[in-house]
Batch of 2 targets.
Target 1
Amino acid sequence: MASPVNYTVTGNIGVITVDNPPVNALSWAVRQGLLDAFETAAKDATEAVLLVCDGRTFIAGADISEFGTPPRAPHLPDLCDHMEAFDKLFVAAIHGTALGGGFEVALSANYRCAVATAKVGLPEVKLGLLPGAGGTQRTPRLAGVDAALQLITSGAPLGATAAKDVGLVDEIIDGDLLEGALAYVGRLLADSAPQRRTSTLEVPQHDAAIFDQVRAQLAKKARGQVAPQAIVDCIEKAAGSTYDEGVAYERRRFLELMDGDQSKALQHFFFAERAAAKIDDMPEDVQIRSVESVGVIGGGTMGGGIAMTFANAGIPVTLVEINDDALERGLSIVDRNYAGSVKRGKLSETQAAACRDLISGATDYAKLADVDLVVEAVFEDPNLKKEIFSKLDAVCKDGAILATNTSYQDVNEIAAATGRPEDVLGLHFFSPAHIMKLLEVVRGAETANDVLATCMKLARRIRKVPVVAGVCYGFIGNRMLQPYGEQAQLLLLEGATPEQVDSAMEDFGMAMGPMRVFDLAGLDVGYKAREALSDKEKGDPAGYRVPDLLVEAGRLGQKSGSGFYSYDENRRPTPDPEVHRLIEDTAAELGIERRDISDDEIVNRLVGALVDEGRKIIDEGIAQRASDIDVVYVYGYGFPAFRGGPMFYASQSAK
Ligand code: 3H9
């Protein structure tokens, strides 16, 4: 098999080219190819080597699919040391993303040049790992301790210019990378630039207190995660010891993490997220429809957020409301959200204004005649939704995709209100829609393949993580929430308190415990939804008795100042003895004997409820695969990614 690494000579420069699609990952063949290319270069008459990559990106890291298989020499840390010790000038030329092991290769070069659009980063923390080929030792030597801590504990990449500002990139190349990089190497040779070996540099002066400060921040921000803390330890080691000691320490900590549950879960999740984008029975030659304009019906919190999502991706949106007042209210929510994005530094004023300009308002459905996609986001009234779809059927052009953002309604019934059910599907966004990454793409019985494929592709364009779901009450995520919520209520009656349930789940890693979620969403929402259900659909009455009583006592959650907790004016919760009494009285009324409940029981029963329902969802074909359910729960419901999602967690616990 041809090597994915090529060596050619241009004048006095040896050019090593990596060509291992799709992302030039450092498979064994690439590592061996690099070693061979350096050996060839050592023997010829060239004066320098330049490392470049073919395709869309520089090396994007170690080959994650090789993790868990027996390691095979040359190992990346040795290869990096070997390349750094090379006795001719060594320059890396970066385009796309130089990530993880790929950036560690670049850090072993004497100099790095990059096109302005390139990004560099060490995202290993997102896989529950740390950079294990010298990254924690070389980065602080070039960029200083503060920048290294920020880069490696966040895993967020830096743009080329920002990377140059901190010393991780030496030269920005305008125009063609290879041509510019060859000229740059030529200049370095002409100037007799020294062979600056990163591992031999001193770590710049820094405040030794920074390590404990960052540890404390990470204990909150990355609660329960082991990799971020290990990264701080490694950078501290770099600052206080020789390179050889530091790199040996890094190696030990890397292997520890690689062996641990968290990195296994995060690696599973990396592939789960990518698998979710694939549709098993989709013909390969399916034609994607063009979506260059969108209509959104309903200017509430959800509709406004959906409009922003499309506008933020550069797609013009017509937001439709029933009258001028409602439209004005809707657009003012959008304005407020954009002001918030500017305040939080997510968008510059100019960017926010450009996005906002893409959203126009209308009160007449005729304005939707030419749009490529409509997303209906009005409240959950099935008759209203059907009426809207029949109007859309009358005004929208042929081939327009008609989507409902319903959380629970039957997409097939909504589709049947049109004469073109093949163009209809569900696009279930999560609130706040312009921030939450999950998108359930609900495939109706008659949804056409090209409609589904178009929306899956579009989801990536609007920076969402799409998961295909079939039609059932609540689709994947909300359907699983029902037994989860029911178990949480039963635990209260059997002896737990709201704060114990929440803290057990938050210690497990959930972004928010279930009681705080109920209070945030509003207890009246579930109350109203239950009114429309039969007793059978409602499930065990003990599973909703307490929230019903809370609503009837006017405790609707955060918005009314009390629910399972009492809230102060800053919406900070405090446990409420009145609620404890209500729970105890209800348990007595239902003949439930209260007992001590352990945190483990809380976690096991709540996660168990998710998993049991998840299995039914797979059996019924509502989800394509178990890992899709993991993606839904991590991106939509705050399940900790470092546990891989509920289905993965259950599969590991069963071992
Ligand atoms: C590491 O380097 C450890 C070292 O420090 C220490 C060693 C001792 N390996 O995301 P996409 C596949 S840890 C294998 O859809 P995009 C991916 O599965 C690594 N495969 O494209 C997908 O396959 P498929 C540190 C990989 O354009 C296809 O490539 N590096 C890898 O949206 C396209 O991927 C990272 O964590 C990989 N490293 O985004 C970077 N990367 O088509 C991880 C991708 O069959 N990668 N694939 O589904 C990324 O962040 C994004 O893929 C990237 C491109 C930004 C590069």
Target 2
Amino acid sequence: MLADGTAVDYAETAQEALARIAAAESLDQVEALRVAFLGKQGSISALLKTLGAMSPEQRQTEGPKIHSLREAVTAGLGARKSALEQAALEQRLAAERLDLTLPAPERPQGSVHPVSQVMDELAEIFADLGFAVATGPEIEDDWHNFTALNMPESHPARAMHDTFYFPERNAEGREMLLRTHTSPVQIRTMLAEGAPLRVIAPGRVYRSDSDATHTPMFHQIEGLVIDKGIHLGHLKWTLETFLKAFFERDDIVLRLRPSYFPFTEPSVEVDTGFAFVDGRRVVGGSGDEPGHGWMELLGSGMVNRRVLEAGGLDPDEWQGFAFGVGVDRLAMLKYGMNDLRAFFDGDVRWLDHYGFGALDVPTLSSGVGTPNVGRGA
Ligand code: 2U9
């Protein structure tokens, strides 16, 4: 009963309310009905407020009816809410069901760049000969890059390297540059570790040069052996052993020619015999055989006394040999690419073709040059 005495049919009110709740089609609609019935200004809340104005007797008869109306509506709202939530969940589960019969999505597979592959192969071959891998900064000072390697300031050999200089000097007043070879790494290693020493220094080097056979950044590997009584015979054997392992053939023939490098004395340029196979140069055999030729492959020599001194060693006590070779060139010779610039274009089609599987780790036992079987074009 309302305050003005109007009788309220609670059963009908409940029926109407529950019918509206049952018709709610969304959680938003259920919430709107909750507010309309039970909110501060809601119709059932208004009924509850009428209890305050009633006589105790009236309240005793009306109170339970209004409370059970409120309970019925509260329960109805809860039930409808759960039903809608359950329906939404079922719809999602149906829509998001995995179809396990579909083919698996294709996963793009990367590949190992031939330069990285060849560097790994070289590290593996030289590790077997007792060489450790040494690394150093690509931003160098002119002392480590030139002076210590017997190229003092204004030495004409500095002009042979088209060097990228930085505008600023370092804290010691030395000129800063991008290393033009990895030799400063060996200087640093000699100073840090002393002798005896067997290291290779692979890495990026920079020269201001750009055409079909030169890129401003390229890769080198240099080797340095320092011990007592080291001579050119050790150098020749080491290079022959390395090249046989790298090209995976026993018929590697070397020809040593006198040359000049400021950091070695005597200096030798090393040629290797090759044959033309399908128009391509393939390393192997003597270059003097008919149809064969010699190609220049690497530079080397006995470490110059002045360089040993710069590395903190007594040249009357220690001798050494060193060599340097272009890694990109080695990769081209072994795997048959003909344009150096493609190495650094980042074209994924080239990488698909010439790249290596990430798990094809070169080892001496499985073959350092496992070709990229089953991959690429
Ligand atoms: C120290 C002492 C001696 C490293 C050497 C060469 C000869 C050489 C070139 C080959 C092709 C560079 O990549 S390339 O253009 N290198 O001919 N490099 S001897 O001699 C050293 C290095 C470090 C302490």
